Amino acid sequence: MLIALGVTGGIGAYKAVEVARGLQKRGHEVVAVMTHSATRFVGPATFEAITRRRVITDQFEAGMNADIEHIALASTVDLLLIAPATANIIGKLANGIADDFLSTLYTATRAPVLIAPAMNTQMFEHEAVRKNLDTLAARGARFVAPGEGYLACGWIGKGRLAEPDAIVAAAEAILRPDGPLRGQRVLVTAGPTFEDFDPVRFIGNRSSGRMGYALAAEAARRGADVTLVTGPTALEPPAVREVVKVRGAAEMHRAVMLRAGDMHVVVMAAAVADYAPLECAGQKLPKDGDTLTLVLRKTPDILGDLGHRRVSKGGGPLLVGFAAETENVVAHATAKRENKQADFIVANDVSRSDAGFDVDMNAVTIVGAAGAESLPLQPKSRVAEEILDRVEKLLAARPAEARHGSG
Ligand code: PMT
Predict the structure, then answer these.
(1) Listed residue (187, 203, 330, 337) closest to 269, CA to CA
(2) DSSP state, 376?
(3) Bridging pattern class, strands 275-277 and 296-298
(4) Which of 155, 232, 292, 348 measures 20 to 30 Å from 390, CA to CA?
(5) CB-defined site of ligand 1, < 6 Å
(6) pLDDT tens for the chain, residues 1 to 407
(7) Which residues pair with 81 in a beta bridge?
(8) What CATH code is assigned to 185-404?
(9) Are 249 and 300 in contact (CB under 8 A)?
(10) Which residues of 339-363 are buried (b: 16+ CB within 10 A; e: fewer)?
(11) Ordered alpha helix ranges (H), 28-163
(12) Which sign does the torsion angle of CA 135, 137, 140, 145 carry?
């Protein structure tokens, strides 16, 4: 496989040479992408000799924009690994700044991203850096945590680049997933639905898709064969087997029902409209009166239909629903679990401004057969891990004949 090894300007840059060598020993091709500061710690010639490839050091290098291999890197690379990653590059990636080849590659590629931060302890613990790391985690980036010990700056603490072997092992785990969900087909829905009532207007909601995308990315990381059915979002989908883009609840219903019979697990993280305009006008509605009346009709209940199909036919996928609530969170989620026949419901208190819709963090209560369990406020990537840990346990406990989706 082809790995782009991003090297940024920290003393750990010398260890990246070992990382490149370790990846090659495992049969991978490595192309080194060095920032300008990295070249002040280790010369590009070192990486060139090890990787036997031209090292990319400058976006505007003569020939760079004519060289097909380099231009195509974003789409051909199987993994973008950045080791060491300084606070500066972490800040750039988190904030969409693309002012050199490495940060441009990050924004252009859809390959999985693995980051090994390395910096001074105080910097690593700074709120700005923590926030940027959370942002990248919420987008699906994986990390190799820095080690503790004596740092080049004289401090003792956390911040030293992880050992090359650990970085290589983390890259291998992403490239050759042999995870606990290997062989499992998982369908995840994400994002809002948009219900059109004329050619330019719709009824929507505040879902960004982050929670569902984090779940899809985590399931793929655990080796599952993932289908992501997504409403309109501004996010780049993670690397999964199939991404199905839909707009309204009815379209999402069709997309999910068509595929669910073949799935082992369905996770409904999408914020699906409960009501949609009865009609969509052919032309933009004129601004005629002081009020406008829209007649809404109930949308199909996707999770409910899956639950009832499972009850009537037997078998069928494990079902995980979400519940967005502003009051009586556990009681409402418990009722939804029963009505929709879900295995468990992940309830969000969306009255909080720091969790739920359109933020990177979430605080959920998981309502299952055994009762309710509240989890702390944490990045959506961590919430996704917690949810999939429970999915794995339930899958393992299912009788063999129920383990195959056939509902
Ligand atoms: O996307 P983010 O910005 O990251 O925000 C995450 C989130 C808050 C959207 C997400 O975590 C969440 O709570 N999603 C479910 C929101 C919702 O629609 O809740 P609900 O209580 O209305 O629906 C209950 C369950 O039934 C959900 O699993 C929903 O997908 C499903 N449903 C609802 C209506 C419908 N017609 N069909 C459905 O399947």
Answers:
(1) 187
(2) -
(3) antiparallel
(4) 232
(5) 191, 207-211, 249, 268-272, 274, 299, 301-303, 321-324, 336, 348, 350, 356-358
(6) 999 999 999 999 999 999 999 999 989 999 999 999 999 999 999 999 999 999 999 866 655 555 545 567 899 999 999 999 999 999 999 999 999 999 999 999 999 999 999 998 889 989 999 999 989 988 888 888 888 766 666 666 678 899 998 899 889 878 877 789 988 999 999 999 999 999 999 999 999 999 999 999 899 889 888 899 999 999 877 767 788 999 999 999 999 999 999 999 999 999 999 999 999 999 999 999 999 999 999 999 999 999 999 999 888 999 999 999 999 999 999 999 999 999 999 999 899 899 999 999 999 999 999 999 999 999 999 999 999 999 999 999 987 656 554 44
(7) 5, 114
(8) 3.40.50.10300
(9) yes
(10) ebbbbbbbbbbbeeeebbbebbbbb
(11) 44-51, 68-71, 73-76, 87-94, 101-108, 121-125, 127-138
(12) positive
Ligand 1 centre distance from Cα of residue 179 (Å)? 27
What tokens were used for 248? 């309204």
Architecture (CATH level 2) of domain 2-175: 3-Layer(aba) Sandwich (3.40)
Question: Containing H/E element for 139?
Answer: none
Contact 258/237 with Cβ under 8 angstroms?
Answer: no
Phi-psi map region of 140: left, alpha, beta (phi>0 left; psi -120 to 50 alpha)? left
CA of 89 to the centre of ligand 1 (A): 35
Domain ranges of the chain: 2-175, 185-404
Which atom of ligand 1 approaches the CA of 359 most closely? 3
Task: Tell me phi and psi for residue 252, to 5 degrees.
Answer: -65, -40
**C-alpha of residue 403 to centroid of ligand 1, in Å:** 25
Size of the chain, expressed as the number of residues it contains: 407
* Catalytic residue IDs: 153
The closest residue, in CA terms, to atom 36 on ligand 1 is 301
Main-chain dihedrals φ then ψ at residue 76, nearest 5 degrees: -100, -20
Strand partners, 192: 271
- Cα of 253 vs centre of ligand 1, distance in Å, is 13
Mutate to test the pocket of ligand 1, among 229, 319, 322, 352 (most ligand atoms within 8 A of CB): 322
Residue 293 is encoded by which pair of tokens?
A: 């009346």
Query: How many other C-beta atoms can be found within 10 angstroms of the C-beta atom of residue 404?
Result: 16
